[in-house]
Design a protein that fits this description.
The complex is a heterodimer of chains A (397) and B (153). In chain A, the strands form four sheets. Chain A has a three-stranded antiparallel β-sheet with strand order 1-2-3, with helices on one face. Chain A is built from 15 helices and ten strands. The model of chain B has no long low-confidence stretch (mean pLDDT 91). In chain B, the strands form two sheets. A five-stranded mixed β-sheet of chain B has the order 1-2-5-4-3, with helices on one face. The relative contact order of chain B is 0.14. In chain B, strand 3 and strand 4 form a beta hairpin. Chain B contains three helices and seven strands; from the N terminus they run H-E-E-H-E-E-E-E-H-E. The chains are: A alpha+beta (397), B alpha/beta (153). At the A-B interface, helix 1, helix 8, strand 6, strand 7 and strand 8 of A face strand 3, strand 4 and helix 3 of B.
Amino acid sequence: MGKRSFITIGPYHPLLEEPEFFKLYCDGETVKEVVWEAGYNHRGIEKISESKTFEQVIFLVERICGICSTSHPFAYVNALESIPGVDVPLRARYIRSIIGELERVHSHLLWVGLAGHFLGYNTVFMWAWKYREPILDMFEIITGNRNNYAMFTIGGVRRDIDEGQISLLAKVLDDLRPKADLIKGAVMDDPVIHARTKGVGVLTREDILEFNAVGPTARASGVDIDVRRDDPYAAYDLVDWKVITAQGGDVFAKAEVRILEMYESISIIRQCLDGLKKIKKGEIRAKVKEIPAGIGLGRHEAPRGEVFHFVKTDGSNSPVRHKIRAPSYVNIPTFRRSCVGQSISDAAISLAAVDPCYCCTERAISVYDEASGRKTFSGKDLVRLSQEKTEKLKKGM
Amino acid sequence: MSMDPKTLLADMKSRFPDALVEYQSLREKRILMRIKKDALTAIAAFLFKDRGLRFIIASALDLEGGWEIIYHFSHDPSGLIVNLSVVLERDTPQVESLVSVFEGAEWIEREMYELFGIKFLHHPNLEKFLLPENWKAGQFPLRRDFPKERENS
């Protein structure tokens, strides 16, 4: 073994914008070994959960991820509802699936944009993020927030989607369709993207199984798994859709899977909207009196793969133990196969191909003018501005 | 290919006649099997390699009188979740590592080692993972006796 040089990605990587640390041990240009150090963002949520009530935990786990913020509440309520066996009203089941799929579309658009940016293809970045905005606006209209929607509750959802919102959402989806075609063309037919991503960061079927990877990462290597189909919940067994897989296992295949999945999501939302129209307004939340002692296992297919929640209860009103497994936890370790043996320049996109998720949502408290040192906006002002914007959006619908 | 909990149980009983301590059907498509800890590697290898189950994650629990680790496995074609549970004695929190069966177990075992103080034998790299470098040795935050509120010091 010759001398190896040591290159770091992180902990404050200007592109990844996430507190995560990869050490690349290289021989010349070739990556020989990768070491992952995590914990920069460890917030002890599993411990905090034990001191909260069941209802409070929903809001706690919503804050695990800033991008797919509804994934964790989704899996958590699935886990908790399974203990007494709650019968969630049909309307709430449709709404749950709509929220879950809207989130998948905006999360995949975010990834496509970032991947384009990684590769120096900023047009894709601009497009993807621009066309993601109407979806976030839609979230704001339905839930009052662009992110951290607080839609889920034990037994159902907290807000209904009314007639006006249904037709507006249908229009947003109509508008999105041609944009998705545009992005699909820009990524899948572009010779530079082909050259840059095909054969890069390849994960074989065996690699996926060895690391138990999930989501688009697994499906791009021909592993046909998707919790929405395999272990249905919410309204996923009431609508017609298909699981997208690819065989390449490289970065291109992962992009392909994500882009095609957006079309499936759009179709699922449309069918759920039709379902909502058919049923009368009414119950969106089943009454859950108490959660008996037991073990709850819940999962949800988040944009990045299966989210898994294990909740143990003892008949009191808070979890005794709450284990949370985010998809990136099993997807990130695949770097051992995808990066090793490749050149350094391919490492960044190979690491990013699993769409590693890190919570980087920070909250502004007040805004100061640097020149004068005066406070121009207080936290209250920011909340007021935000509420005014939501009202304006709602009026414009 | 479907997987019926009853067939799986019968299979387990014939292959590992002494290992199964308790069988529980939690609800539809969710089962829990408490097994002897010496049989853990063999049973995990059987589920993973022979029956094609996917390892989801493992959850460690502080039982006051002992320790429990629940290994969650998923059989994706049928949506079945198989929970393998081992109970460890309070004074000797250690069990065989599953890294020899699937590499993906490496990080979760490091996490349980760090947060619960459970040792995984024959683990290739049982080192600090999530907690800060200056974390006091012997302090395991997910144990029951670790305070929930941070002291104001």
